[in-house]
Amino acid sequence: MNHSPKEAARHMRVVDKVAPLDRRGFLRGSGLGAIGVTVVPVTALAGRSASSVEQAFPRLGAAAGRTLVRMARDIFPHDQVPDKFYLQAVAPHDLASGQDAALKKLLVSGLSDLDERARARFGKPYAAVPAEPERVELLKTIETTPFFKAIHGGLVTGLYNNKELWPLFGYEGSSWQKGGYVDRGFADIDWL
């Protein structure tokens, strides 16, 4: 279907070509991130109380839940995504650990190892390390472990397959029901 330029412009959405400076980029460039300015209390789960974490992690415990939420946020950092979605993405690990003893052992030992590494380097458990770059540094030391791969794999689907989050990521969802992407933003990409 060929549209005149005027008709095509009517069907296109306008995309801001200027990349906005986000908090992480600003802090990284200014050096403030290294001194812990980006501290967010681990227990400050947006829309969730500490009891919600306890309820979501009856098998592994609330401390494990807070550590997993912190890990999830450090692995896939999206400032616009509330912690409740990270909690939803990692909570299935607790349920699965109740049905699979080997998985529970993997999670418990992986969390313990991560906390030990954090204590050896920073004198506190992973979730209490205040600066994101320091936590990411710790995660890089375990990124080839089965524990990290299990958490990472669960997060990919737990976060990016959540339809509630798609608008925050700019994903409009499936398009075939609406005529496809040709008439709905195909030409909006600016990296070609």
**How many separate domains make up the residues?**
1
Radius of gyration: 20 Å
Largest sheet: none
Instruction: Compute the average pLDDT.
Output: 78
Broad structural category: mainly alpha
Percent helix = 40-55%
Broad shape: globular
Percent strand equals under 5%
The count of helical stretches stands at 9
Number of strands: 0
User: For the terminal residues, how far apart are their CA atoms?
Assistant: 22 Å
What letter string, H or E per element, gives the SSE order? HHHHHHHHH
Sequence stretches where pLDDT stays below 50 over 5 or more residues: 8-19, 30-50
Describe the structure concisely.
With 192 residues, the chain is mainly α. Helix content is 55%, strand content 0%. Helix 5 (83-99) packs across helix 8 (146-160).
Q: Could you characterize the architecture of this molecule?
A:
- The chain has 192 residues and is mainly alpha-helical.
- It has one domain.
- It is built from nine helices and no strands.
- The radius of gyration is 20 Å and the shape is globular.
- The chain starts with a helix and ends in a 23-residue tail after the last helix.
- Mean pLDDT is 78; it is low at 8-19 and 30-50.
Task: Name some characteristics of this structure.
192 residues; mainly alpha; 9 helices; globular
